[in-house]
Structure formats: structure tokens, C-alpha cells
Amino acid sequence: MRPDTKAARPPRQVRKLSRRLDVARQLHDLEQDAALDIVDIERLRMSVTRSMWFFLAVGSVFTTTGVHDFLAGDLTPADPVWWGCWGVEPCLVGILITVLRWEAAMIARGIDIDSRAVDWLKRFLLGSTLVMNVVPALWPREGGISAGMLAAHIMVPVLVFFLAEVMPIVQARCTQARRAITLTAPDTAAPAPATTVPTPAPASPAEVPATPASVAAPPVSPLAPVERLADPRTQTVPAAAVELDGLGIPVAMQAQIRQLVADSATAVTAVDIQRATRLPLPIAARVVDRLTPVTANGYAH
Question: Quick one: which of 100, 176, 198, 280 could link to 168 by a disulfide (CB 3.0–4.6 Å)?
Fold first, then answer.
């Protein structure tokens, strides 16, 4: 074989499969990171919020026409009031959405809204929109009553109101779910430098004081066994001592948790269990409650 001959490349199928395996390993590593749950929750929140905003805008357009028909009456576009009637319903909907966004921020922080003024304000906004949409349908200026238009003028304002009510709840619950995920900070602490203890120089025979024979230490036989007491802190808890029944955890995952407790030299936390098993944080906290009496002093209670 000549020296300038290139090494044989692996087959194309091998190279293609190797690239797929590399991608699979990278995806597996990313899926073990708890930050991926935050990304998924935020993506879901944005998607749901955009859809709800779109349908809320469509419903507001319909209610705006009903309110304008009620307020404008027999006015013509030559009258400035006719143009001003178009801004009444957007004003009502804007106030409603602003109040509900404030409620969402308070709910996400665990603060209850117990003010009657807030409840009455929302009811007044809903009632105003509902009345101004229903009256033109019940007493039309031309023709008779249309059952379809009457049902639409009742259903759409109520739907817009409840859609505006649900939107801040979605925002608040997504925020709570995102904040419930605990991220572990990377260990960036540098190891402490090892300190060397200087060894004293051996003393000369003249400086060593003579030890009386009466206080001399008894000779220790090299064959005598040295007894050491076992430190209870270094004793490992057997994996079978961990009781996890009743938590709804699969048997294989229970064995994985028991092995984690047996191999860990320190107390196992909820974050450790979540990273090892991908369990939700509340269930991992319940597992830690089961482990607390076992890992507190090294003995099962």
C-alpha cells in the first residue's frame, strides 16, 4: 500500500447512522435538563395566548357592531356621534382585559382578590355589552325578530366575557408551573488548595530528653489487632429499607430510587430524585418525606 493512499472511509450507511446516534445522545442529554420543562410551558403559554387573543378580537368585532347599532340609532355618518359610537365597545373590552390581567398577576403570586368593587366592575362591563347587543335584536328597526341574531347577540358577549376571564387564569397557571420547577445551579466553586504541613526536622540525640522507664509507653505488638468503632454516619442504608408503596410510582422507578439512596453518601433531595427519575417535583418531595426518617440518622424508624 502506498503511503499517500487515504484511509478507507466507513460506508455511507455507517456514517449516516453515526450522525443519528450523535443527535439521539444530544437529545437525551437535553431531555434530562429540568430547564426543558420551562421551555415547553412557555411555548404552550404563548401558543394558547395568541389563539385566545385572536378569537377574543373576533368576538369583540361582533359585539362592537351590536353596541354601535344600539347607540347610533338613526344617526348618519355625517354626525360625529355616529363615529364616536364605534369606540364604546373597544373601551369596555379594554377596561375588562386590563382588570383581568391585573388579576392574573396577583393570582400568580398567591394573592387572592377579595374586593367586591372588582367583581361589580366586571359584572357592569358584561351587563352593558350584553344589554346593548340584545336590545337591537329584540326590537329591530326594520323587519321582525330573528331568532338566530338574538341567540348570537346573547351568546357572543357572554363568550367574550368568559374568554377574557379564562385568559388571565391561563397566564397565571403557566407562571405558577414555570416557577415550581427547580433548577440546580452549576458547581462553579474551585476546589480549595491543599495545605502542606511542614515536617519538623528530626532532633539530635542530645536534644531528646530521657524518658523514665516507669512512664515509658508499653510496647505495641505488630500482630495485635486494632479495634475501631464503626461510625454510624458512614453506614449506608440498605435499598430495601426505603418504603415507597402508595405513591403511585412504577416498580422499576422505585428500584431506581432505592438504588440512588443506597449509592448516595449524603442526604437525597427532591431535585436529585427529579433529575434521576423525571418525576414531578411534588411527588419527588413526597418521596423525600418518606426518606427523611431513613436518612436522618442512618437507621430506619
Answer: 100
Average pLDDT, the chain: 74
Residue 66 has pLDDT above 80, yes or no: yes
Domain boundaries, the chain: 35-179, 235-295
What span, in angstroms and rounded, lies between the C-alpha atoms of 154 and 159?
9
Cell 403511585 belongs to residue: 248
pLDDT > 60? residue 8? yes
- Between 74-78, 99-103, 232-236, the lowest mean confidence (pLDDT) is in 232-236
Distance CA 91, CA 63 (A): 12
**Reported pTM:** 0.48
Of the candidate ranges 60-74, 106-120, 273-287, the one whose mean pLDDT is the lowest: 273-287
Question: In this structure, are residues 45 and 170 in contact, taking their beta carbons and an 8 Å threshold?
Answer: yes
Instruction: Give the span between the Cα atoms of 295 and 265, in whole angstroms.
Output: 10
The residue that leads in pLDDT, 4 or 104, is 104
Q: Grid coordinates representing 74?
A: 338613526
**Cβ–Cβ under 8 Å, residues 288 and 242:** no
